## 1
Amino acid sequence: MDKTIVDILQQAGLLIAELWLLILAVAVLLLDVFSKRKRGYLTNALAIAGIIINFYFIYTTSQKYPIADQATFYFFDSLAVYRYTYLFQFLFNTSALLCLCLGMFGRDNKNVRRGEYLALIIFMLLGLHLLAKPANFLILYLAIELISFSAYMLTYFNLNKWGTEGSLKYLLFGAFSTACMLYGISLLYAFTGSIDLEALQQIVMQTDQVASLLIVGLILVGLVFKLAAFPFQGWAPDTYEVAPTPFVAFLSVAPKIGAVFIITLIWQQLDAINTSSQFLYYLLSFITLGSILFGNLGALWQKKAKRLLAYSSIAHTGFLLLPLFNNSTNSMEPLLFYAFIFMIMNTAAFAWVYFMEVRLKSDKIDALSGCGKVQPFVSVLLLVIMISLTGLPITAGFTAKLFVFSELWQSISTTNTLASIVFIAGLINVLIALYYYLKFPYTAFFKNPPVTTLPFVLNVRQASFILVMTIPLIVFFFKPDWLLVLIESLS
Amino acid sequence: MLLTILLIFFASLLSPFFYKRYQLATASLLSLLLLGIIFFYATHLPQITKGESFVSSFSWIDSLGIHLTFYLDGLSLFFVMLITVMGLLVLLYSFKYMEDYPNRGVFFCYLLFFMGAMLGLVLSANLISLFVFWELTSFSSFLLIGFKNQKAESRRAARQALLVTAGGGLALMSGFILLEIITNSGFDLLATLNNAEAVRESNLHTAAIILIAIGAISKSAQFPLHFWLPNAMAAPTPVSAYLHSATMVKAGVYLIFRLNPLFEDIALWSYVLGITGAITMSWGAFKALQQDDIKRILAYTTISALGIFFMMTGVGGEKAINAVMVYVLAHAFYKGGLFLLAGNIEHQTGSRKLSELSDLVRKMPYSATAVIFACASMAGVIPFIGFVGKESLYEALYHSGHQLEFVYLAMLFLAGAFFTAATIKIVYGAFLEKGKLEGKAIKEAGILMVFSPLILGIAGLFTGILPQFTVEPLLKWSAAAVYQTEFSTEFSTEFSTDLPNALSIEPSMKLKLWHGFNMVLLLSLLTLLSGVGLYFIRKLIEKLNKPYWLTADFIYDQFINGTSNFSKAITNVIQNGYLRNYIAVFMVTFSGMMIFVFIDGGFIVSADVGNLLESAQIYELVIIALVTLATAFLFKTKSRLIVTATFGIIGYSIALAYTLFSAPDVAITQFLAETLSLILLILILHRLPPYTLKKNIAHKKYLPLAVLFGVIMSFTTFTLLNREVNADLKTFFLENSLSEGKGKNAVNVILTDFRALDTLGEITVLTVTMIGIIALLKIKSKP
């Protein structure tokens, strides 16, 4: 047999998790077609079970293709296993699992097109899995496209005209950013004749600043768009507001973390050369500061919970990028810790919003009035989630912020003046965040509902979902090392 | 020590569940628990008063080297005693006072939670955990102030207090981080304190001092962040007594005491504290006399007293610290008692406005006794502890040799006089005066509600008479920790449980009730006399008011509204829902980025535009003109059809340009793509709703932006033209397309042969998308 084919067959095991997801998506579609009752529970259960099994496949792959400090390349240098590849796959998988579990609480009419909905989420997860191991920009681009196209369609799954608008905006904006990214990639190709991630090093060495920064800048556009960071945040609030909430819990976490992962990869490539220009740091501060400030200011006056969370997730993006300021260490632990906690608390917050939507058909924060009196315990959970999102003790949100800030102050002590500005701005923003996140518990505890309406309550199933999501937020405050050990064991 | 804190938190969590059913049992259990804790800490007294200290440490965040460490020395123990004893008294009081509130179980939960947090704060020997407890006290204060949440006033006050104190906490945290950068001690308090040298030499200490001072100022309600405290009086009275006078507001004071050894040699520290304290002290005392509501009077005098603590810490030195420590104790005794008594008055009469009260000495004799005791102490009448405190303050200031000594002394004198006047106002107005309430049936408050304030009043008298035996041993060690550098240069940082660390030299503090006739006594007497004088001109003072727009409350409101409006405006500009606006934001960013790159790389100068113009051919200029005209025309038209047609012109022109530059295969591809998209666009056009944009003005604001972006892009492309391009691939495709791919059109060959797999992938993605879209189209859209 041809040697090439032998090689491919030998390395096919690397893609076993991805192949499994592909099979799963098809199976879900088929089951949906052939199951007579349109209840959707069966399809949902299949999807959830499949994703749980996928953890096992990630595990076996990680055993067979172990990680090393340096990336190892497969499939003729088109795929690579990086140090954090499996960890990120684990994160994406968990996020998808949470999204699907949350979807189980939905209304019945949501079961229209349940099969397609689930399949698209699994496709998106497949894209994310690929995003964790690209070795060249083509694979990266394909992964991003797979994620994006699934996301464009999933946005519409509330099946109303606002959904069309949000979805279309998302699509057009996405097309624009992707075009920029492609332009950057093609310029890279033109100058170096290569589309490997490592070609970035080459371009910085071979050409002058204008060309290299233009290329890096253009490629970043596509990623920053996926991140929903300033100045490409535009689509996020409009899209989140109209998309199905469980999907938003996934959309606002997984692609974001994936994009951060790619940006760190690019960062490492560029750092290896250590460009004399401070330009990239200016760009990074612009993006982080812009995201944090704009996200928080935008969230400050929102009356609708979902839109508020959409803006605030833009601010969290800024915090996720903070560890990049410290180029002296290549440790990604602070980022990963933040990513984990962000996933948990953001999903919890969106879950809360979803339950409001399911019951009240509205996500106005005012609808929480009186909740604290009727259900004090559940409302305390809400308080914990919101304090965690703000980043104050005694929640893991605080520990996460402490970790990312610690990266910053270490770079302050190694003479990076920009970092100190970002640092101070970040702290001020915690106060702004406190103001708006507090609206939730403030309304729940202190305001009384109008006499005519009953206060909003969660049923036992919903409350236990929230409880399960809240426990880690407290546990990882007291024992952050447990989470760090988990991160360590996967990387 | 950790155990005691955990026990309190535990009790706090359980109390709301049990209090509903077993009121009496829960109440007595809670009291017993607190008694036990007081006893536990009291057993440390003998060793502490010998100068020993205790450290206990637990692992927490190992990866950052952060440990959960607790440290007990004179200063911590003094505050622990304050917190637990006052806590017990307030708790006893509120068992009775809160009787009428339906969900008082939750109240006790919050109150105990606060107590645990406060204990943690004063025991923490780690800056992170100190911050954690600091913020927890802010949160519990938020919940407690808003406890009577039916009132909008309470809700507003709760939120205000939280924003100010939690915000100050963040400043504090940044200060701590700066300290960590300077000393690199893993946020360990004791190790940091041992590094005073490094802090003094670092150039970061100015920022650290200012940030930490902001934290302390916000928590301890110092000018200009004092405004939240009077508003916080919306809380139930026990809360005001406990949090907003005896303990929480003293957290800031504790903090500056604790960090004083680190900064005391730095002039900035002493001026920041001294001047803020002095201003707050006088301002608070002055405002106190203007108030009618008893609780507000007390709130302002509290602010003023906290100002005294700050000022004296700013003055610094052994005497000043000794004096301030006595005054902290005196203040806790009289102010806590007075707040509780204000609660009694409100509880029994339904009002706490002086203008509506009278005759209470006859209706509520026991409360009246306690009030008179506490007020005497506050005014500084002999032989109460307040007198001892005031004497030592005068004494310390008089001999301090500080530059601002006389300014401080004069202001302190004035504040003292105002205190006296306010005291007379309360005692005479509410208790002695006859009239308004004479005929009404008002009963004495319940026994639990009289017990606590009476105990505090008697304690004030007792300690006042015999200060040297009762409180001096602890206070002098407490004070010694604040100016510790003179006694011991090392704080023990051993991470073992309860390791005693003996100090060799005894600190000195000579407390006496009677010092003989001297200047200081004269000052005290004059203070009392001027106070009486001020009382008689109080009507005049009440008229002295700032205009409303200068009050801190107004500025706070403006600030909150302003931020909110500002954020609204920003969001409306950047995020107005129009896609074109988002694209505009992108273009601005990109242009800015490129301009920066060009300036940074020095390319503005080196670009050779002249050369480009010279080599231009006439037919190139025709194409350029065509494209430019078409683009300009886009701005003129309102018809979609014309827009589409114009786009076509631009597209074909570009294809034409390709032919001119000898790339016919690319050109033909461009022609085909252009034609296809034109046809598709026109097909879609008639299905779209009518064009809604009435005016062209909406477009015009983007015109300069578009021009800028165009210029930048042209310039970028132009500079890129000068770069050396890797030509291997180009030649490879051109040379091999016929021989390997059997095709003359290189573009086609690339698509269908060389990169056929990519094309297949692309087709697959498009197919998947199409299937998805068809599926969505089949669902009937609901409006």
Note: The radius of gyration of chain A is 22 Å.
## 2
Amino acid sequence: MLCESCGQRKATVHYTEIINGQKRESHLCEVCAGELHSQSFNFPPQLNLHHFLAGLLNHEFGESDYSIPAKSGKKCDKCGIVEEQFIKQGLLGCGDCYPYFGDKLQPLLRRIHGNNRHTGKVPVRTGGRARVVKEIEDLKSKLKTAVEHEEFELAVKYRDSIRALEGKLQHEGGEV
Amino acid sequence: MSSKDAVSCAHSRWMESDGPESDVVVSSRVRVARNLTGIPFPHMLGPEKTKEVVNAVRLALNNEQFKAVAGESGLIHLSELSPVDRQILVDKHLISPDMLNDFQNKAVVMSQDETIVIMINEEDHLRMQCLLSGLQLTKAWEIINQVDDGLEQTIDFAFSEKLGYLTSCPTNVGTGLRASVMLHLPGLKLTRQLGGVLGATGKLGLTIRGLYGEGTEAVGDLFQISNQITLGQSEEEIIDNLISVSKQIMSQEQAARQVLYNNRREVIEDRVFRAYGILKHARILSSEEAMRLFSDLRLGLGLKAVTGIPAKLLNELMVKIRPAFMVKIAGREMSAYERDSFRAGLIRKELEI
């Protein structure tokens, strides 16, 4: 028998692997088997979060046996997605699902991202107070740099802008 | 676009190989996910509602701020394209394979040079991407940031102060940003250092996978590295992290190539010219074999062992030898054997330099 990989040398290495119940036999020569060995055993496992999400969700939603839970009937008021559908697909139905499934999503988000608070870009139109908060944070870091470089005039300017924005936030009230 | 150009021409701006570090970094991509506020995510929508999303984007294309970044861009419904043409857009890396499922409700916006693409009604309402040659992640983010600002003039995006941009899948929430680089790593493979490098990358919150091929096989020694975390880091932090890891892998790859070339010059040259010879003269070539030979030839170009072949030609060939483009050129369906023979002919013609 010739090697399946190169088709040139005699196959002397025969091995069988069973992954998820799928059996696969390989017959290789020593050279190709050596290459395969060095490749496949050093490789990190391919972890696609999408695929694992359903499993994680099941876990988060209180099902330890990774099966779809019995119908709870709980569904998002806005888009009508039911909990079971979300757990099965790993996809939320609409933006309102986030606060709706909030309690259960938080630990999941921490597990995926190691974090559960956004610190990036804030849109102008729908950013609301978050935009002002972000602006203050940016100014604070600029202020710090200015002080470090002893650019005090600049620092005063930043400080005043920060105060003005903080005043604006307090004036508007509400929650951040 | 010009959807016609995009599907009849294998070339795309990102293939030019004129970006920085393009001997190792083939391309850089930045993609952000956005959803319209008040409308359920695409998988929950029927045909009528998906049209609303397409129309909202169509309107936004006319605002000046968007045009200033992306120029005049056309909107194409995927249903207007033939299955072959849709596949060509995937093969050119302009749209994701997911766009081919339930394509009736999906549409795409493309800038003239194809560097900016907006996929509509994929997993999220909007997925905007910028694809550039070489290592240009910062520039790609700057462009996408402006595209996003432009669209936001007329579209309200779903956003939470705590969780950031809301996405269909919780793995994208926050920045909604996925940045990636396509790397050519034959040196690390030949020196058997790939496992270590890739393992280390995986520990830094990045995902690495073979660009073509399944499982552990990376056909053509092409790898894609992308960020996994989208929440809790700013866009700039995500991009900087990916750049710094890419640069480290790049310098290891360059060192490996140099060691190989210094110590085993004849062996490497033999490998490169053998590949060149087969590509120039073979009569039957499977896509896998062709990709392997392209990799060897690309290595030769990087080491300047071979000259006179533009790297962009290899980038284009990677698209041209895919079944969809060959059907496009031939104008008919082909059996697997016919394809292999057609492929060899195509490559011979392209390499007659």
Note: Chain B touches chain A through 54 residues (CB under 8 Å).
